[in-house]
């Protein structure tokens, strides 16, 4: 069994350098790699290109990296809820590429499946299509979109084992499995790390072959962005 | 004239038994409250859930269980969870029967604009471009006119597009309209108490209306 375990977030991200391209899993603040983000802020690497569906909020998630001006470019589908983001965007400090959410997920998938490009109808006839090749299949137009090329993918799972196998919980799965497959180096932080053999092979969402480093994270805040409830009556 | 709940109620009547439905943020979310009894639908949330249930009871919120609006929600018997690529796979391959979403503008040839106002902060399109490009059936829930009283049903959209030639049905506070295959809005129903002339004045795009357009029923 190949052991993928590292001591923690600091070791896991130790070779991430200025100018690298990172994929970061999560949807909103759900399923984000909290420990690695904290370690990246501490390390202070700069000029990063971050591929992530969202950009966190002002004081949590990728928002923490934005505050330290570590991000040169965001590639996302939706970036509301973040005043510092807006300030940097309007002042020209931050470059932003907005792409359709399904295109984002599928460009990750393509990278993980070893395919150079995909064809999607999303964005045909809109400004998203500018400069892109359009192909017609069976009477319908599709845009050619390239697979992402990320130096690192950083994901968060619920459980993992020493062989790097991952299980996600509920909708915190989101982009994490496709990003895990897509990084040249994939770092997984998990809420619970167990010995190989403790997880049922039938229940694995991401096979360990895609994961290069794994560690058990600490102090998960799991902040809720929109707390919506109903009352019992 | 309908309020937001009235629009949602009217749209809910378009949902058929056995439909898988994706609801956008805003008025579309309200549609879930008005699905008629005896109609079984499965709501998809594009962040990776089929079978979206109601908000959790206070104290039972789960940070790992949210919808595409990042609200805490619940699952239902028969729910399933999947990743984002699979989620848009079921959208692109038209396994989702109906998409209901909001719009800032719709044109008479079925173009929709709902993600960007140039010069203002741009938040992004989220999943809207994927949904409108692939859905076999889209209903738009929108206000017929803006706050200045200007029509949002136009000959051509003025705002950056989300999708082209994709909208077939629109429900507003004034009317139910179909977008005709050859272009133009066809008035199908009037909101209670609203005249055809009133709707005609509120519609800048080409409007086709019979003399006796029925008033919509909400029950």
Would you spell out the secondary-structure blueprint of this structure?
The complex is a heterodimer of chains A (233) and B (219).
Chain A: H1 9-12, E1 21-24, H2 34-43, E2 48-51, H3 62-67, E3 71-76, H4 83-91, E4 95-98, H5 101-113, E5 117-120, E6 134-137, E7 140-146, E8 150-161, E9 166-167, H6 176-182, E10 183-194, E11 213-216
Helix pairs in contact in A: 5-6
Chain B: H1 4-12, E1 20-23, H2 27-30, E2 42-45, E3 49-52, E4 75-81, H3 84-92, E5 98-102, E6 105-107, E7 112-113, H4 128-134, E8 138-141, E9 153-154, E10 169-171, E11 175-179, E12 185-190, H5 196-201, E13 207-208
Parallel strand pairs in B: 1-2, 1-5, 5-8, 6-9, 8-10, 12-13
Antiparallel strand pairs in B: 2-3, 3-4, 6-7, 10-11, 11-12
Describe the protein's architecture and organization:
The complex is a heterodimer of chains A (233) and B (219). In chain A, helix 5 packs across helix 6 (176-182). In chain A, strand 8 (150-161) and strand 9 (166-167) form a beta hairpin. Chain A is globular, with a radius of gyration of 18 Å. Chain A has helices at 9-12, 34-43, 62-67, 83-91, 101-113, 176-182; strands at 21-24, 48-51, 71-76, 95-98, 117-120, 134-137, 140-146, 150-161, 166-167, 183-194, 213-216. In chain A, strands 1, 2, 3, 4, 8, 9, 10 and 11 form an eight-stranded mixed beta sheet that branches. Chain A is of the alpha/beta class. Chain A contains six helices and eleven strands. By secondary structure, chain B is of the alpha/beta class. Chain B has five helices and 13 strands. Chain B has helices at residues 4-12, 27-30, 84-92, 128-134, 196-201; strands spanning 20-23, 42-45, 49-52, 75-81, 98-102, 105-107, 112-113, 138-141, 153-154, 169-171, 175-179, 185-190, 207-208. The radius of gyration of chain B is 17 Å and the shape is globular. Classes of the chains: A alpha/beta (233), B alpha/beta (219). Chains A and B meet through helix 4, helix 5 and helix 6 of A and helix 3 and helix 4 of B.
